[in-house]
Amino acid sequence: MAARQPVPTVFRQLLGDAGVVEPGDASAAYLAERRGLFADRSVAAVVRPGSTDEVAAVLRQSATDGLAVIPQGGNTGLCGGAAPGTNTEGTIVLSLERLNTIRAVDAENFSLTAEAGCTLSAVQQAAAAVDRLFPLSYAAEADCQIGGNLATNAGGMNVLRYGNARELALGLEVVLADGQVWDGLRALRKDNSGYDLRDLFIGAEGTLGIITAATLRLYPAVRERATCIVGLDDVASAVALFARLRAESGDTITSCELMGRMPLETAIAYAPDCHEPLPAQHPWYLLVELSSSARDGDLARRLERALAESRDGVGDYRIASNADQATDFWRLRNRIPEAQKSAGASIKNDISVPIADMPAFLQAASEAVIARCEGVRICAFGHIGDGNIHFNLTQPAGMEPSVFLAQWERLTQAVHDVVMGFRGSFAAEHGVGQLKPGEVARLKDPVEQSLMRSLKAALDPDNRLNPGKVVPPGPS
Asked: CA-to-CA distance for 80 and 83, rounded, in angstroms?
């Protein structure tokens, strides 16, 4: 019997030299993980198919050889969903970066078809070239890829107005575990001809199939924006102001971001291009942006009127008079995650609760973590308009980072327990990956867990697609 060929050699025969990344420095970027939680792991090969047919060939070969497959987009995720797991023997990383073609743009149908490896910014630019908007947007858009956005059901800044990635997808092309290709690239708004298979794969993080292309929903281009930052006494005032602004603005709010004083101070302290936005300091801030595709939306006037008539809990405010001022406001919000690293070790929580429950959640969660770690600094900020807050924790002043990070599990569980008390989610927009399957097992309804395992077994019976991610193991 002939000796079995090394895994890289097998795939080089299938894909050519461009389709396989050599071990060592060349493959390091594919094995890294943005938060450094799942580092120092290797795989049998890193492959880069250049077409859907080649993705199918890789999965067929992997099935024959019994290899596990980790699909990877831009590798910008925060929960380890695209990183190798603990058992990397017999595992390959399948990068989709070479599937980077915009296949079609249909301005009249307000749709666009892109391959999975197209960066989010490339999709935005293709839409803008025909005077259309693809509204998915967040900080990593120059690096993240649309396949990964869909696989994680990415959120971002504009969810309030346009929805998560799921709401922006009309159809998908997916390669299944056995190498079959499902062509669901339909540009339809209405299709009740059977199960909605598309929604099985969006948010599944590559555990049920690998998305290779998507037909996406476009919108009219934005003609006018109005942006403001408001100082507030408390979170209840932020919730009330959001409701008022939404009604008074004709429901034109695109983004509504809450920032506590602590994260704002962190951005100002550690990011040299960030400055105090208002004359006085406030416990909380609301960053609001309105947008319209109309040329005469009169958004700034609507915003001014609604703010002027809002009294309780609302301090001073500023409405951006030009695009540069609006950019300054947004820079404060966008610099927080990076600035938090300079403030010390951090434990990050990506949660959601009903908007009306946000004040009570923040109080209860703050009390829970302070009771367990005296002096912990609470860095709460995020998309309050859709109920998603990043309830991050920064180490107490003077505490060693390792001592603080050793409390990760008990502090995180305390936060998640409070979240579940409000019937919220402990994985609002960053997914589950390999960071949170234990919390899925601990907190999700047993029937829901059973359904997840049944779907996984039906579509990936050998558990080769991104094993160890999202789906908790069954009861022993």
From this structure: 5
Phi-psi region of 123 (alpha: psi -120 to 50; beta: other; left: phi over 0): alpha
Residue 76: count of CB within 10 angstroms of its CB = 20
Amino acid at 320: A
Strands in 169-175's sheet, in edge-to-edge order, are: 102-106, 111-115, 210-217, 169-175, 181-184
Q: Which of 210, 164, 207, 216 is nearest to 189 (CA)?
A: 216
- The Cα diameter of the chain in Å comes to 83
End-to-end CA distance of the chain: 39
Cα 432 to Cα 425: distance, rounded to the nearest angstrom = 11
Q: Which two tokens stand for residue 220?
A: 């009219």
Sign of torsion over alpha carbons 13, 19, 25, 27: negative
pLDDT tens digits, one per residue of 162-218: 999 999 999 999 999 999 999 999 999 999 999 999 999 999 999 999 999 999 999
User: In 3D, which of 403, 413, 349, 411 has the Cα closest to residue 381?
Assistant: 349
pTM for the model: 0.93
Q: Which helix (H) or strand (E) holds 451?
A: helix 446-459
Please give the helix or strand (H or E) that residue 315 lies within, else none: strand 314-319
Cα–Cα distance between 331 and 136 in angstroms, integer?
18
In terms of Cα–Cα distance, which of 196, 228, 198 is closest to 211?
Answer: 198
Going by C-beta distance under 8 Å and a sequence separation of 6 or more, which residues neighbour residue 396? 373, 374, 375, 376, 377, 404
| Residues 355 and 235: beta-carbon distance below 8 Å | no
For the stretch 258-298, pLDDT in tens is 999 999 999 999 999 999 999 999 999 999 999 999 888 78
- Set out the domains of the chain in order of their start, with CATH numbers: 7-95 (3.30.43.10), 102-220 (3.30.465.10), 222-342 (3.30.70.2190), 344-451 (3.30.70.2740)
Tally of CA atoms within 13 A in the half-sphere of 397 that contains its CB: 0
Structure tokens belonging to residue 320: 């951006």
